[in-house]
Amino acid sequence: MMLGLLLARGGVDVVVLEKHGDFLRDFRGDTVHPSTLDILRQIGLLDAFLRIPHRREQTIAIRFADGTIDLGDFRGLQPFDYLALAPQWDFLDLLADAARACPNFSLRMRSEATGLLHDANGRVSGVQAHDVDGELEINADLVIACDGRGSILRDAAGLAVETFGAPMDVLWFRLPRLATDPDQTQGIPARGRLLVMLDRNDYWQCAYLIAKGSDALVRAHPLQTFRDLVAPLLPFAPARMDALQGWSEVKTLEVRIDRLQRWNVPGLLFIGDAAHAMSPIGGVGINLAIQDAVATANLLGPMLAGTAAIDDTQLARVQHRRLWPTQVIQGVQRIAQARVIAPLLDNTAAGGLLRAPALLRFASRFLAFRHLPARLFGYGIRRERVQFGARG
Ligand SMILES: Cc1cc2nc3c(=O)[nH]c(=O)nc-3n(C[C@H](O)[C@H](O)[C@H](O)COP(=O)(O)OP(=O)(O)OC[C@H]3O[C@@H](n4cnc5c(N)ncnc54)[C@H](O)[C@@H]3O)c2cc1C
């Protein structure tokens, strides 16, 4: 959506396909980091974004048995000393509305790309799709696949994927939030378990990590077993888990980290999770996808807005620019998975909250240490500046 907006504002004819009828899905995550806030400022949408009901988190806390530690700390960082938590459907609606103001932009909801079209030379020349009226073909000078970690266009293009694995999947559910509850997004590690609670003002969005592939096993037990596992981790009365009435209220989100070895073929480019699926660690995947979009618009926008034929050799410049930041963030996510999450979940005997490691407790006294995750995930590496399509 961000790329569609930038290209359309720059004068490129854009069609965006979205297979769903709306953006109202919970699993999209809602962290909008300073890197994205800054992009919104550059394209004149920051004020409108900040009018969306959102929370500002200045610190991300980890709650241990012996007290809470602020691991990520945005205080003192400029120009944004917080990360925003905003429902992604509102964020996407904002971008879509801004893009619709361009007469050369079209957003086709309930339109699913199902395959690729090729010209006589084998170059990708569009997509096959279906919408409510049936099958259709959409021709394009360039197809940009942003269809997420389950990308079917990846398969259609037959590109090689490097898979790094993930030790966990996530059970995603809501709990009611009371005025007396703590008001901070927090991670709560315990022996064999990890709960992350996102404060969404009137409710808690909870992510409970389970060992990869163990979903069926967990669900084979009565819901009460799950309630009993999670309840001791809550920072308030365990009875709140009774609000969960059935397994249907618990969604399973598959976690994976992978990366295409090559992000483009003639006529087709991959960005975002379709090029590099991100783990939820650091809540950074949305922000990285936005950076990809800005880089793509900067690098390819002028060519797409021109009248000359597309030079396919230019497509590789996007991967060239975005590969390194992606590798670094995925590398950090893989280390966190291997060193922290896998050992935690391997411990099959569920037990009480963990005590904070002494070194972590010591290091967290220093603001510079607490700034590290905020800088790495919040501000990112090789931050993009909008050079194409900033204004309509
Ligand atoms: C459990 C979990 C929690 C996460 N939490 C966060 C978080 O809090 N913050 C964060 O920054 N990142 C988070 N991430 C990572 C984040 O979700 C992704 O990195 C990010 O959404 C990638 O954005 P994208 O636009 O590339 O893909 P997506 O957000 O997946 O968007 C792809 C879009 O394409 C549509 N689509 C798919 N296939 C087709 C098709 N064939 N035709 C038409 N449309 C199609 C989909 O409906 C979707 O709207 C999380 C990941 C997981 C697994």
TrEMBL record:
It comes from the Bacteria. Gene3D superfamilies: FAD/NAD(P)-binding domain. Keywords: Oxidoreductase. Pfam families: FAD_binding_3 (PF01494). One of its GO terms (molecular function) is FAD binding. Residues 1-309 form the FAD-binding domain. This is FAD binding domain. It comes from Solilutibacter silvestris.
